Amino acid sequence: MHSASEGVDGTAPAVGPVRLADALGWSSSALGAPMTVAPRRFLRAIGVRDDPKAVAWTLGVGVREHVATLNIVANRQRRIGMWSRVAGDAMDLTLLAAAYRHKREDEARLFGAMGVVGTLLAVDLFTAVGLTRADGAHVSDGSGSTGVGVEHDTGGGHTRVRTAVTIRRPEAEVRAAFRAFAWTAFDPAALEASGDVRFERAPGNRGTEVHLDHEPVVRGGGLGAAAAKAVGQAPDQKIHDELRRFKSLTETGVIARSETSPEGPSSARQILHKRQPAQPVEGA
Amino acid sequence: MRATCWSGRNTVQVEEVPDPKLLTDRDAIVKITSTAICGSDLHLYDGYVPSMTKGDILGHEFMGEVVEIGRGVGNLAVGDRVVVPFPIACGGCGMCAKGLFSVCENANPNAGMAEKMWGHATAGMFGYSSLTGGYAGGQAEYARVPYADVGPIKIENDDLTDDQVLFLSDIFPTGYMGAELCDIQPGDVVAVWGAGPVGLFAIASAILLGAERVIAIDRFDYRLDKAREAGATHVVDYTQVDVPVVLKELTGGRGPDACIECVGMEAHHSHPIVHGYDRVKQATRLETERPHAVREAILSCRGGGTVAITGVFGGFMDKFPIGSMMNRGITIRTGQTPVHRYMRPLLERIEKGEIDPSFVVSHHLALDDAPKGYEMFKHKQDNCTKVVLKP
Ligand SMILES: NC(=O)c1ccc[n+]([C@@H]2O[C@H](COP(=O)([O-])OP(=O)(O)OC[C@H]3O[C@@H](n4cnc5c(N)ncnc54)[C@H](O)[C@@H]3O)[C@@H](O)[C@H]2O)c1
Ligand SMILES: [Zn+2]
Ligand SMILES: [Zn+2]
Fold this sequence. Notes:
Chain A is an alpha+beta fold and about 280 residues long. Chain A has helices spanning about 15-35, 40-45, 50-75, 80-100, 105-135, 170-180, 190-195, 220-230, 235-250, 265-270, and strands spanning about 150-155, 160-165, 195-200, 210-215. Chain A has 2 domains: about 20-135; about 160-275, no CATH class.
């Protein structure tokens, strides 16, 4: 996946949201520290009664904040980390609302705390959306670059698949094989006609590069696309699976079959790989 | 057939599973006569390699007799005695053409999974998780060998025992590769971390390739004794001394010309705090490795020297001494071993009597005793260096 921080982008560098995410990531621990070190004092500071249950919740939230820092800053899981923060903020607002009803000690302070969390929620949401947008942004060519292997969402559910594979065979042979292969992901003739597929000589006598730049039709709208992706049937997954099989068949005459992927490269299998151990299959 | 199956962290079971069948024209079925447990299997056993599934058949170091072949396998016949390399490679892609069989572009049907983690995928491997293809392994009575016309090497000399040729499947080429990557010059001093089977072959190979001194580092005396047997001129118990300091001393202050790391992701550190730091980070998956030996090798190596990493790593490490490496021009070379390209030349060395790989074997067990073998090898019980299972 293309991460926002790489900023290969050209169109919408994601430096802003990334910096913000890191700052917010650090702030998590700054906030978490008093919660884990002095939960009672913390509760009093926000105007909530420090009974054992409230203390336990505070400790829990404090730990969550430290985990958020680790996730966002240390593990660079910024997008996921930021969405978790959004969920966390919502949870905190709910907790504060509950505290307002049952454990209120100082109304002004509690309102203050709600104000702070509300603001954080807005900032977190802004950052999370920014990161998500940047992740899905179109990665532009760059002059002369072929964008090999880059694949991305252009937003709005459509998937433009841009990928390339090198086949260790001369161009004429690769073209013929391309027409003969049993593609299900697209119609090879239509692709050639539209220029969505290009064949180029690979440098250094390494055969032929097949470049694909294609926007497959997505059926069933956004939900359908998500469902297809979850089971390895999305158009881009199919294209990648079939390109691998095509390469293997053209170069070696067979498709690599393992005990867990008996039909060869298959995104569906890879998603469901836990179901089938690497053992010979009965009657295969 | 009977097969050794992974059944969760720290457990393997020998179970009855279906017999393998040919899945493509280029497959062969091998009836296994000898199969070994590798340090790499311990990483699976200990649960540090992702994408394992309960029931996965383990084992990637095996040999036996061809009992069935696909139509496309022209160079083997039923009855041939073969050793099978652990990487599964197609022989037809650009990487195979360059002899880089362990990064074959076709043989790993789950390449898509591996790309997410590593950028690009490896070849297939027997019995080594879904990331490397999800192939059934060879600690079993039979195994299906894909691309059987590319990988297996025929052993025509019946005077050679299984123990003498079995390790052509992995650890002999791996240790040899470690030494070869160091580009050893006459007079060189080479330090080897880990005196397990891989380290022992790295030591022996460094001597074969002309190293003047080889320093072996481990904490088990019986393994250090083996290291001497393999040709080490010095041995160091890392729990008793500060390794970089001792290496400086042993090399007149220069540091070894080359360092070979044969420990991998579960290295042990004699300092409880340092060990604890990485142990906790590994257990909580904040880093996937315990890389003490790698760090030490880089810090110990002389300026401009080479560090060859043969130990297996999975993901991400912490506190990588890039400053030492960059400023002093250390070269790091590594890889899953492209075993195919070493099998023939190393078989010749065995036939010429330059080395007898059977010296690493400490135990022969029945296949059904595989669980015991894993425990012994993991906990270094009964002076265990290498377990060979007999189906
Ligand atoms: N690159 C490849 O293709 C390839 C092939 C085979 C094995 N391997 C890897 O090589 C490594 C070694 O395999 P093995 O079969 O010899 O395993 P092993 O577990 O028997 O040997 C490892 C040795 O390292 C020692 N050790 C632990 N911490 C140490 C430290 N800090 N300093 C020095 N020594 C230390 C242990 O005491 C042990 O003797 C494993 O990681 C294995 O996965 C890689
Ligand atoms: Zn091995
Ligand atoms: Zn290949």
